[in-house]
Amino acid sequence: MKRLGDLEPKAKVILAREQAAYERSNPKSKEAFERSCRVLPGGVSRTLCYFPPFPCQTAAGEGCWMTDLDGNRRLDLFNCATTLILGHRPAIVMKAVEEQLARGTAFQTNSGLETVLAEMLVERVASVEQIRFTNSGSEGTQMAIRAARAFTGRPKIAKMEGGYHGSHDCVEISVRVPAGGGGPTEAPLPVAGSAGITQRVLDDVIIIPYNNLGVAGGILAAHAADLACVIDEPILGSVGFVPAERAFLVGLREEAKRLGIVFILDEVQSFRLDRGGAQQLFGIAPDLTCFGKIIGGGFPVGAFGGRRDIMALFNTATGGGLIPHAGTFNANPVTMTAGIATM
Ligand SMILES: Cc1ncc(COP(=O)(O)O)c(C=O)c1O
Fold this sequence. Notes:
Elements: H1 4-25, H2 27-39, E1 58-62, E2 65-68, E3 73-75, H3 79-82, H4 91-101, H5 113-124, E4 130-134, H6 137-152, E5 156-160, H7 199-203, E6 205-208, H8 213-223, E7 227-232, E8 235-236, E9 242-243, H9 246-259, E10 262-266, H10 278-282, E11 288-292, E12 302-306, H11 308-311, H12 333-342
Parallel strand pairs: 5-6, 5-7, 7-10, 10-11
Antiparallel strand pairs: 1-2, 2-3, 4-12, 8-9, 11-12
Helix pairs in contact: 4-12, 5-12, 8-9
The protein binds pyridoxal-5'-phosphate.
The site of pyridoxal-5'-phosphate (PLP) has 15 residues, from α6.
């Protein structure tokens, strides 16, 4: 059997040939990238948009195809990180959005559209009694975590090693852990995924090994007095789409309930798996659920929702709400329209 090392020189030759062909067929994207590098660090505004030697620039999308600046037509397997469940520019969404554009793009008041999309999601997801919209999945997980902290009066959160929940401080931890750098399996260490995350933030994050219920239960129990929530994805997207074992999810849910820890299921990506999300597929009912991506029909979106007694913390009508929830473009009518058409 050949070892990987034996193949390396050949692989390098193939890669160099492919790279040269890519550069030859993308001169406009190259020029555009060089221009963008002058004003955007690394030439992009989103880490994942960069790939070497330079990313192609998309001029248009249609269905499952994208066309770049140089006119190359590409099969879009990335799908804006699983967001475009109906593909690029689906007619039903485009028509609804065009009609909404003629009526307005951003209002200081409700438009009624947020109620319609909220009703659709509440009807689909049995565990969600009430919901609030945000502009990104990251904001959704941030608000859900804050709600859990406020509800329990406890400071710490537990998350999976390899779990991704967005770009804010307390979740950008132990997402892609360097081999051997995550501590022992029985007690994984929180590893900062970015410069600028302080030790104080790390001290408030407890790491759990995925699909290891024995260890996970022990860790939750040991930290229960301080734990506000455990947040989990039904499928770990960022480390290669690793599905949860049902027994793990169900057991974690039960253990959280027993210990009075809020169980947050991050369905930002997995909601597309079933009409009622992955929680319907797995048969579990989290306390709070986070949404994003497909529910905005291709426009910026996020949401969090769940038990009425927890969501009551946001009830502006009773004494101002214990948790303020601002966001200039929350539930803007364009996103809501696209979300309704997509759902
Ligand atoms: C599971 C999960 N949670 C949260 C997020 C963050 O969402 P956003 O990129 O909209 O902030 C993502 C984004 O990929 C995600 O996959």
